[in-house]
Amino acid sequence: MKAGSNRIEAVVTNVVAVNELVKRFHFERADGGLLPTFSGGAHIVVEMRDDEKTRLNPYSLMSSPLDTRDFRISIRRDDVGRGGSLFMHRKVKPGDRMVISNPVNLFSLDLRAKKHLMIAGGIGITPFVAQTSQLAAGSGNFELHYAVRNDALASYADVLKERHGSRIHLYRDDSGETLDLARVLATQPLGTHLYVCGPAGMITWVRNTAAAAGWPAERVHFEHFAAPQPGKPFDVRLAVSGVDIQVGEHESLLEAIEAAGLDPPYLCRGGVCGQCETNVISHDGKFLHNDHWLSEEDRQSGCKIMPCVSRFEGKSLVLER
Amino acid sequence: MTMLSRPVYGVLTPQTGKNHLLIADADGASAITDFAKKAPPGFFASAEIMYLDGPDGAKNVQALKALSPARFYQGPSIAAALPRLRQLLAESHMGLRLYVAGTEGLIGQIVQIANEAGIEYTAVQTEHRGSLARRVQCVHCKGITENVTTQPCTCAHCGLLLLVRDHYSRRYAAFQGVCINAEDPTEIPPTEEIFR
Questions:
Q1: pLDDT at B92 exceeding the cut of 80
Q2: What distance lies between CA A128 and its chain's CA centroid?
Q3: A187/B93 Cβ within 8 A
Q4: CB contact (8 A) between residue B120 and residue A213
Q5: Cis peptide before B152 (omega within 30 of 0)
Q6: Which candidate, A6, A9, A312, B78, has a CA 20 to 30 Å from the CA of B67?
């Protein structure tokens, strides 16, 4: 997919402080029309032009798929991240023009399910806000378990409770409330699909607990966008283009390739979708794979890298790009 | 090159789970007793065996009961067992693992019912033992003919002479049968018994 066909000129129509860490941003088309259709679980990539630097970060849509007059995303401020969330929190104001991508869904509901069991941790609630709206409109059977630190940081817990009542189960860490996952898993009817979105540790816990309880892997869906990790700068030769680049400490390999004027394919920019998979022609050093895409065999072979989130340390790296 | 839809079967292998349902007919019983040798200790304490014994199942019944499953059901045929199976699946929870061993017709029909109940075919352990007789759906009248062993076969419903294809429908749990002499019904190709 070419970035050119994937860009929507949008206007920020509202910025709402949801709580001390989370802000919600509303986007409408600059030309006033309807935005593209999407399904619950989809994300958009937001282009952030911050002086010299352009960041492209993925965020789950949390507005109802039934209403495409605007797109809404909620962003948790990360004070020690690469700066995308801080830029959104500090600099973006209603009336600003921004470029967003078409929606892409890598975390869609399996509508063959007899029931949807959803597990959310913290800001991982956002795709479920959209999915529960979609399911409620079609009388879909679902149950959402949502773990938060405390009431003050329980983004949208009130809204979800109001919309969906007893289908929503809230667990507040500061009140000592914990999700008895093994018990919840054991009481689900045949044909239930499980979805989890939240911190990496929570996703691992849910996947492992489900596997131990006899849930087939194809019934367990998860989404975790890995933010690109900073690291030591490294040099890369892009053999097809004949370009040598350096990847900076706070820059991803994908961003460095784009900064060199290339237009490589991407969708999620979070190590999930596989779109930016790049062949390695030669290397002398070690890969720091941070994606959820490559198989263990791929990693062992040293023949592939996901430039959106993964890095390299060593003498030389030549990519087929 | 076989057709992609042609089912392939494996060897029953113990799965992680809360409960286990093992279903077999005829020689499928031996697949379960073989499976028992590699099952973890205590496996059958959370397992039910449904055995559809056919005419000479008495000694198999003894061997299966000797595994001490939590529940044991014995019935004369798939059709007789279906209401019970449907009920059992409707009341089951995630964590139930399903294993089917025996004739191709049994495996197909159990996979079909399991799918309706919310267990995908990829999650069902299957092992083929015994007859390869086919369930054939006539693509013309839609009737299903059971226990087809010949090529071609005669549709038990509309009487057309059918070429039995490897094209398989999981939804109908049947192979597709297509009229073999539509151009000239007087042309009768030789009949061979090939699905034993």
A1: yes
A2: 12
A3: yes
A4: no
A5: yes
A6: B78
